[in-house]
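(Protein data)
===
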Amino acid sequence: MIEPSPYWLRDNCPCAECRDPRSGQKLFQITDLPDDLAVAARTGSAEHLEVLWSDGHRSRYPRAWLAQDAEGDGRTEADKRLWTAADFAGGLPTARWTAYLEDPAERAALLRAVRHSGFAVLRGVPVAERQVLEVAGTFGHVRVTNYGELFDVRVEPDPNNLAFTSVAIAPHTDNPYRDPVPTLQLLHCLDNSAAGGDSGLVDGFQAAALLRAEAPADFAVLTRTVVPFVFRDRGTELRADRPLIEVDPLGRIREVRFNNRSIGTLRGPAGELEAFYTAYRRFAAITLRPELRLDFRLDPGDCLVFDNVRLLHARTAFEQDGSRHLQGCYADLDSLSSTLAVLERHCAALDTIAELFAGEGAGEYLGEAVTMAEHMLQAGALAQAAGAAPELVAAALLHDLGHFHGALHGRDLMQGQDNRHSDTGAAWLAQWFGPEVTEPVRLHVAAKRYLCAVEPGYRERLSEASEYTLQVQGGPMDEEQAAAFAALPGAADAVAVRRWDEQAKEADAATPGFEHFRPLLAALMR
């Protein structure tokens, strides 16, 4: 590994003095660092590098993070799957609306398809006016334009756009005259009983890549020629000057704006205009190659979501003796990418927790007749059967995670040492869950000590192992401690979790597995 610049290394210090632990935003200016900044000493382990800086600050870096390659924002061709129609011979990327709503993994898979392949179709979306706005709201925000928050794609008596007629529409991107251009489009089918009116998609990145391979000089012309895109009607006057193919500083394709109807008058020297039109016509011909165009029919309840700065969309003509009605809206890729990143983060966290249940969870539970996983799953099931709120079900399910090794804490409670597993578990879970989940976890040991102090007969019902751990954890509270505990905002919830905790020790009890609780946990994660 190349030795990094001291300023790069210090600028990326992950400690809480340098970065807000919630947002990751830096808490200092680059000019706050001294001009003579240097590494005074470095130590560490196989997992971490520790640096003492010349100004006395200390930093700790995971070595796996230091070894990572540079990452992009996912918007260029480098992070996309370029395709032709034949690549979808086995079917389109789809999901059922109900599964998409209920299963975070299903939702992540569909959004990932939009990000990487440029599109996906939701099936079974309710056939109702304005439902397309509900779809957009599952991953972002609607972009309101001069067409409104949504638009109806159907034959209009006085159309201001060819989309509102029955004629065929060639492959194009929408709103190239807008700055910034809407980066996502949604089309929800309400009716499609007309003959014709099939939808078509062309991967504009693939078309641009083919132009680059077949005619690199023409590709270069289209990346450097600024084209005026214009739209006007009685109440609107829009213009944006952009190239047809936009590349990033590394030359990677990042956006395609292609709309013959909206190109204004390009002016310049005759030689440059000639070169542009030669390149423009060649690129247009590539977008019309049959092997690039993916045609399919949207049925009522289908909602197409696609990348409007990558994919060109098209439509065949349709007969006006039938009815064709789509409702559409615009949204943006940054919100979709944000939602996807959070979903993937949550899925990874739930995978980690599931691995703890399946791995260490199979081990014995403090001398009881159940395993650790069986105990926690029983507690979660008892809370759910009692009609408890989702956050309490989650707290009951996860209350003993602090006993695990690895990312959490060694299990030494039965050796006579209080491992403070309630605090450890709550702190670890706080990465993803709010206090409505973590506080009952943090207080569930205190709740046992409280109940032993204030509820006659409670202590006598403790198992032998629970009586032993009670002594290790401090024994019953005294009167003053019990009063202080009862006054805590989360005391009642902690007591509820404690009761399920004590009941969840039945050998061979029928108990749902961790996957049963996964959707509930996903809905609570932040």
